[in-house]
Amino acid sequence: MYFHAGQDFVLNTRDVLGVFDLDTAGASRRTGDYLRRAEQEGAVVDLCAPGTLPKSFLVTDFPGETVYVSPLSPAALKKRAERSDMDSCSMI
Fold first, then answer.
1. How many Å from the N-terminal Cα to the C-terminal Cα in the chain?
2. What is d(CA 92, CA 84) in angstroms, rounded to the nearest whole number?
3. pLDDT tens across 1-32, in order?
């Protein structure tokens, strides 16, 4: 199922490998290295509106390994993903 990840962008829940809080994960040297490498490879998509601070990042495996930087908190993204799963169950 699909959920809104920010800036009129939707992701398929099955493509998401992980959702990370930038406040906690961003403090790690390894995470910083990972994000810099992904940006150098052109694999980072910024979903934040101008002037909006990012709160999380999502790692996906479609297309390829892509990192989406979102203005939404991990908790908000989790609720949206769960809600989209519940909505699909009601359609069956």
1. 13
2. 13
3. 888 898 889 999 899 999 999 999 878 899 99
Chain centroid to Cα 42, Å, comes to 16
Residue with tokens 């290295």: 33
Residue 13 CA: distances (Å) to CA of 2, 22, 48, 53: 6, 20, 20, 23
Query: Which residues, at least 6 apart from 14, have a Cβ–Cβ distance to it below 8 Å?
Result: none
pLDDT per position as a tens digit, 32-51: 999 999 999 999 999 999 99
Distance, CA of 55 to CA of 74 (rounded, Å):
8
Q: Assign 11 to helix, strand or coil.
A: strand
Is 0.90 surpassed by the pTM of this model? Answer: no
Name the token pair of 49. 């509106």
Contact 58, 18 (CB under 8 A): yes
Whole-angstrom Cα distance, residue 72 to residue 55? 6
